[in-house]
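Tutorial, part two.
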Amino acid sequence: MSTVAQAPSVQRWPALGTTAVLRTSGGRLAAAVAAAQRQIAWVDAAANRFDPASDLSRVNAAGGRRTEVSPLTVQAVRLAVDAAAVSRGAVDPTIGQELVSLGYDRDWDLLAHVDARTPLRMPPAPRGGSTRSPSWRSIELWDDPPAVRIPPTIRLDLGATAKALAADLGARAAADLTGCGVLLSLGGDIATCGPATDGGWRVRVADDHRDGDAGLTQDIAIVSGGLATSSLVPRRWYHDGRAVHHIVDPRTGLPVTPRWRTASVAAADCAQANIAATAALVLGDDAPGWLTEQRLPARLVGADGDVRVLNGWPA
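Running the prediction step on this input gives:
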């Protein structure tokens, strides 16, 4: 995960099951935090699949009926559909039922967590490879009034994109309100808006944003856009006696077999960076070629600890 260097103009708080960190290039830190928190709360109300009152839960429970939602929910689902298209289906919002079947059916804090040093034990892949048909194309969206409809056989999960969207919206709202440059990190998904601090925003890239100096870390600086790190290290839990993780291969409906344990990507905004980082973990050996096609700077850490940098990412 990506972490933010300590500075007097930094504030941290819990949000979306992780840690939010906001930094400004000037004053008005309290006002910036309040503006970001409002955006994060709105995204949570739209896209939290563990809250039965959220728009996402109502869509999933609608049995195939058209469900009126907030404009923000339509924006979040449209981003997830776009993610599936650009990633060739590697990042698919229709894996909600697969996550439930793997035991990820409640808030992260309620799961039986696994130490990051515990070896992963992937469930056996089905014979013949892919068993799932791409279903993200079956999602229907309306803007006036805002509404969503999905087939009754699928459940949406926006975990791969909603947190990054919240970071983008929160950073923009904080910068617009205060007139300062803002960096907002949500569990390693980093969005910036406005002028950076002198020398750029200093960021530490690691397997887990809570690691500090531990493990394979790298300090870099960004001046604009977004940066995201997806990792198989921090979110592991036990299911049927196996240590599994949360990155699902949509082709099989199972956790990806680790080729890369961590992927960090820089892009024009946090959402695009997050989509690419998640896709890289799913694509495995095909990730470097796909990232080069997208012209995105990236840092890939192999399951064996080997580090590979691409497309202008600093060595």
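The chain has one domain: 2-310. In part three we will examine how such features are distributed along the chain.
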